[in-house]
Amino acid sequence: MLRAVGRIISHQYVLTGVFPVQINKAFMVAMLCGRKALTDEDLIEFFLAYISGNESMEMREIMKECLVGGRYKELWQCSKKDVFKIYDMMQLTPSRVLSMLAEDPSTHIHKSQLQVFSYLKKYIRGLGREDLGRFLRYITGSPIPVAGKNPSTFHAHQLGSLPHAMAHTCAAVLDLPSGGYDSFNDFRKQ
To answer: Which InterPro entries does the record cross-reference, listed alphabetically (predicted)?
Structure first.
């Protein structure tokens, strides 16, 4: 079973460059690198991250019995450090999302459009990981970057032609009004 899941994940990573960072690190390391790549404490620690503080003490004992004795087959010749590096590379960060954005070169950029684009960048820099996922989902329909479908186009519209930001998930296009914002706080509210 784990081998089949590993093949799907590796196929996805090779074709799209997307690695499922929502999957627990310990599970991924054990599946890809073999169970021996993890210490028992690593295994327990990473799984306890998904359990509330009230359940942690009870679950630690149960996990020692169940998880530590499990058998896993390795799929790739890699180390725990390699898998952690992939997780770190694939995590959403403001700089990663900002690098995906680009202005539409076909539109003539006015000062007001540049100001709105700078507000958008400032807004993205202030987002946490979960909010970055929500932002990507709003624009692309997916909370993780998908090859060929990044929020790569920015259209600024004249004041009055567009009352608020509008996303087109099929094309990963974000349409923003090019004016009407008095400040960054005004932009953020809308």
So the answer is: Hect_E3_ubiquitin_ligase
- Beta bridge partners of residue 167, listed in sequence order: 174
The sheet with strand 153-157 has its strands ordered as 153-157, 173-177, 166-168
Alpha helices in the chain (DSSP H): 2-16, 25-33, 40-48, 56-66, 80-90, 94-100, 111-125, 129-140, 184-189
User: Would you state the pLDDT for residue 72?
Assistant: 44
DSSP 8-class letter at 175: E
What is the band of 71 on the pLDDT scale with cuts at 50, 70, 90? Answer: very low
| Spatial contact of 144 and 100, defined as CB atoms under 8 Å apart | no
Amino acid found at 165: A
Rg of the chain over CA atoms, in angstroms?
Answer: 21
Q: Which residues are 157's β-sheet partners? A: 177
Cα pseudo-dihedral 82, 38, 23, 140, rounded to 10: -10
Would you call 168 helix, strand, or coil by DSSP? strand
**Average pLDDT value over all residues in the chain:** 73
For residue 160, name the pLDDT band (cuts at 50, 70, 90).
low
Rounded distance between C-alpha atoms, residue 138 and residue 53, angstroms: 32
Quick one: average pLDDT of 101-110? 65
User: What kind and span of H or E run contains 173?
Assistant: strand 173-177
Residue 75 has pLDDT above 60, yes or no: no
